[in-house]
Write a structure and sequence with these properties.
iron-sulfur; 304 residues; metal ion binding; nine-stranded mixed beta sheet; binds iron/sulfur cluster; globular; Rossmann fold; ATP binding; binds adenosine-5'-triphosphate; metal-binding; two-stranded antiparallel sheet
């Protein structure tokens, strides 16, 4: 007798790669790396279709960073329609609990079972369609959200992998080690490690200076036999861009059909002009290479 296809399996079978973005510590830039990853994968080919799912249920920041705050999710006969951040309305979709809250300042105070149910609903009810990449932004540490994701996805999708984000400081690296240990315990393959806030991009000349320590992530990758995907410096241009997305977004009622906004289109183009985007390109090339099973170039650094 043929096995019954679960709703999650049905949704995930049209998604080629699922990339779970994790960090041991909060505030290391995991959400901004997730957004940059989605934007860079989107730009990596004129036909790449990318989804970004925000399962940081208590602190959803992806809608704000993508300039989609205040947008509502539409329910169609085929499920929840993602909020699209691009003009094509098929190539860069986003889903977050942030779209389901009445006001963006409302907080989500849920216990494990409710979080688990929400994540199952995200995985089974969102109409992503065909996707090349689904990037999942998770809360810091290893929490109920991570366990729920794996519980629902691991049995039905063979191309799940993780990217670990850290900053170079010792405390962040210690927590990144815990995150790595978690991925090993649950047999989640790690594509590599990104060292964020590694050095500083001068807003005047674009020069990268090492004002704080750097290289801790690269060293951890070397010691643990992980691929070092690259370093990203502190970039004030990036913060301005992601914060401006918040300020420019008009509020929209949850039952109103999603509106395209000029601001979001501009964000996609403007990101491509930033130093961070240029530094992210080789990271994405390595990641795509790793996903294709080609391996990547060891522990060389990407930072300019
Ligand atoms: N490379 C960077 N340069 C400058 N600012 C950055 C960089 N990376 C992240 N930031 C900023 O640092 C702050 C925290 O980033 P972010 O929300 O991405 O972290 P996080 O690890 O997802 O945090 P948490 O999950 O704990 O909420 C944000 O204001 C973000 O814009
Ligand atoms: S060259 Fe040095 S001092 Fe001058 S703007 Fe750039 S980083 Fe700042």
């Amino acid at each position: 007798m043929a096995a019954i296809e679960t709703p999650v399996a049905k949704r995930l079978k049209t998604i080629k790669h699922v990339i779970i973005v994790c960090s041991g510590k909060g505030g290391v830039g995991k959400s901004s790396v997730s957004v940059q990853l989605a934007l860079s994968l989107y730009a990596s080919s004129p036909i790449a279709r990318v989804g970004i799912l925000d399962v940081d249920l208590t602190g959803p920041s992806i809608p704000r960073m993508l300039g989609l705050d205040g947008r509502g999710v539409l329910q169609s006969s085929e499920g929840w329609v993602p909020v699209y951040a691009d003009g094509s309305e098929t190539r860069l979709g986003c889903m977050s609990v942030g779209f389901l809250l009445k006001r963006r300042e409302d907080s989500v105070v849920w216990r494990g079972p409710k979080k688990n149910a929400m994540i199952r609903q995200f995985l089974s009810d969102v109409r992503w369609g065909e996707l090349d990449y689904l990037v999942i932004d998770t809360p810091p540490g290893t929490s109920d959200e991570h366990l729920s994701l794996l519980e629902h996805m691991a049995p039905v999708h063979s191309r799940l992998s993780a990217v670990i984000v850290t900053t170079p400081q010792a405390v962040a690296l210690m927590d990144a080690m815990k995150c790595l240990s978690f991925t090993r315990t649950v047999n989640l393959p790690v594509l590599g490690l990104i060292e964020n806030m590694s050095g500083y991009v001068c807003p005047c000349c674009g020069e990268v200076s090492n004002v704080f320590s750097t290289g801790g992530g690269q060293e951890m990758a070397r010691q643990e036999g992980l691929t070092f995907l690259g370093s990203l410096p502190v970039d004030t241009e990036l913060v301005t861009l992601l914060d401006a997305a918040e300020a420019a977004m008009p509020e929209q009622a949850a039952d109103e059909p999603p509106r395209r906004t000029e601001r979001t289109f501009r964000l996609i183009d403007q990101y491509q002009q930033t130093s961070s985007s240029k530094l992210f390109k080789p990271i994405v090339e390595r990641l795509i290479n790793a996903l294709a099973g080609g391996g990547v170039g060891g522990d060389e650094t990407v930072q300019a």
